[in-house]
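Deviation from plan, reported transparently: S-adenosylmethionine complex.
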Amino acid sequence: MKTTRYKIQFPQADVHKLNQDESFFYLTEQNNRRKIRFHDYNEIYKMPGLYEQIFYERLKCKSPTKVSEILKSTVSQSQDNFSELRVLDLGAGNGIMGEELKKYGVSRLVGVDIIPEAYDAVVRDRPDVYDDFFIADFCHLTNEQRENLESWSFDCLTTVAALGFGDIPTKAFTEAFNILQSEGWVAFNVKETFLDSSDTTGFSATIRELIFSEYLDLYHLERYRHRLSIEGEPLYYFAIAGRKNGDIPKDFLDAIEK
Ligand SMILES: C[S@@+](CC[C@H](N)C(=O)[O-])C[C@H]1O[C@@H](n2cnc3c(N)ncnc32)[C@H](O)[C@@H]1O
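Because the crystal trials were delayed, the predicted structure below was used instead.
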């Protein structure tokens, strides 16, 4: 992968008291300084190595490593063979989680992201990681997309650093969960506050209900440092792994979110 170094700068501490999803940085190229929000993934992925430089080098993100580790140790508690897993990586971005899974070795690995720039970045930077990659919105899958995805017979779902904050909504996550084979493995992470009962937003309530629901057998729940904030403060997340115990019924979300 090309290793361009970018001139990036985070805003001064006193001019921002931003929520995590409002964070941004400045990128300077040829004397032109522009502001890019952390959520402008389309802009970030277009520049090889920029995502890695910000989130993995500067902000020390370790979620793909952590979530793949707990998935490995979770599966090892069963008779299943990790190397035979058929994995759907939802919110795959430019493929860093896929790369981690590939280190352990899995049978099939398919990525999905909602933006075409993620696909372009994977093809450019990590062309050998995924067996296939879909650009799809799981909130509005066409019948053809669903059938295509089902034909992979996935028995593992991973979603890293992509749930909440306006990224993957619970509806999309449950759609992916239901595409999994029965007794499929699930591994993902969420910000620690999403599991706090004082957070009464629909997203948090649904995630909590889902984690402790009859549809998932919880194997692993671990608080860890996801990454640093731009102020250098640790951001804690929970890494979660478990086994699917049944499809989530359509009225499950409606009942929580109304
Ligand atoms: C912070 S990135 C994480 C990428 C990768 N999993 C990683 O750990 O580096 C979040 C990704 O989720 C994707 N995303 C957001 N909403 C989505 C949705 N509804 N369906 C699929 N992907 C989505 C974004 O496009 C982005 O690539």
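The chain has two domains: 7-58, 63-257. We consider this an acceptable substitute for the interim report.
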